[in-house]
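Run log, item B.
One chain of 143 residues. Sequence copied directly from the ordering sheet:
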Amino acid sequence: MSTDDTCKDLSVRLWDLHTGNCRLTLRGHVAAPSLLRLAKSGGVLMSTDDTCKDLSVRLWDLHTGKLIAVYTPPERITSCEVLLGGSVLALALENYKEVLCVKLHGPAVESVQNGKDSEFDDRDYGDETLEGRTFEIKGPENS
């Protein structure tokens, strides 16, 4: 993937590492995207500009090169993550104390659904026998 210095047309380009050819060119930002996040499944990319020249967050289908969604947060993004194949974005925003989670709605997109299915884990977390118990945690200096 490349942006900014190599793509003067404000696009994101995906390169085939075997051939060296440009596989996809993703266009739509009004400023060069400087923050990219790839979904764990690899089929969805989030792009945004963390310098505030373009506040929009764009979600791309990397199988087709099509734009899935655009979201414009109220403040600059300081950190972000793509979750569940792109069906949820976790955004840390400047001047916000809490993480903003944005859920994708609308017609199903195959790459998002496939990623969501592969990342979703409904198994219980932790030891059920410890549920509701309180523990006193001591550091090495308090042992």
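Observations after the first pass:
- The first helix runs from residue 110 to 119.
- The helical segments are 110-119.
Flagged for discussion on Thursday.
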